What does this fold into?
Amino acid sequence: MDQFTKELQFDPSNLEDLKFVLNVVTRISDRSMDMELMYLDIAERYSTLTRYDIRVEESEISIALGLSERWRKLWVDSKTKDLRLVDVKDEFREVTKEQAVSFIGESVKVKKEFPERGPGSSNITLAEGNILLDEYTKKIHQMNSQKKELIVAENMFNLDVTSYPALSEIEHEMEKLTAIYGIYREFKDFEEGQSSTLWGDLNIDTLQVGVADLEKKCKVRGRELNA
It folds into this structure.
């Protein structure tokens, strides 16, 4: 209760703060049934102690028997806080709408530049594309995190969840490119491993088996990508 009371006093100044406070209000509401069972159980225990003349400090009994009233006040305070945040929620509801529109534009922009600047560009080497794959993987991860935050905000404000088809298309292309560059990375690892072998220790069978294995993976991956 102390923690809830402290968190409920927080005044939101941005969307993250607002989400925090609304989450506190929700948690208080969700805990009501459990808390009622707990304070009724505690009150019954202290009543039993008093009935059998077991010495307990009056202040402790007072706190125990006052839990129900304390929780009721906290619950009322949480509902009051929620009502007082109506104007703030309206403000951030509009902010969320604008952020969703902005994110759509950002997704479309990334999709447009992806064929020329992404790891699948025909103007780059495999080594360059391998680096770009990591960069775009990180970028897509960040965009997905932003997308999830927007969805949470839209659900919180009872807004329709926005879809981002451009981002979905980029993810689909990245899945294909990740598979392709996976073969390239295996090849580079194999090449590096063999390059460090002394001529006298070089095993032709190992080379042939390694090459055959990579070739087989290329064919399988090709069929999967064309399916």
In short: Residues 88 and 196 are 64 Å apart (CA to CA). The two ends are 58 Å apart (CA to CA). The chain is about 80% helix and 0% strand. The mean pLDDT is 88.
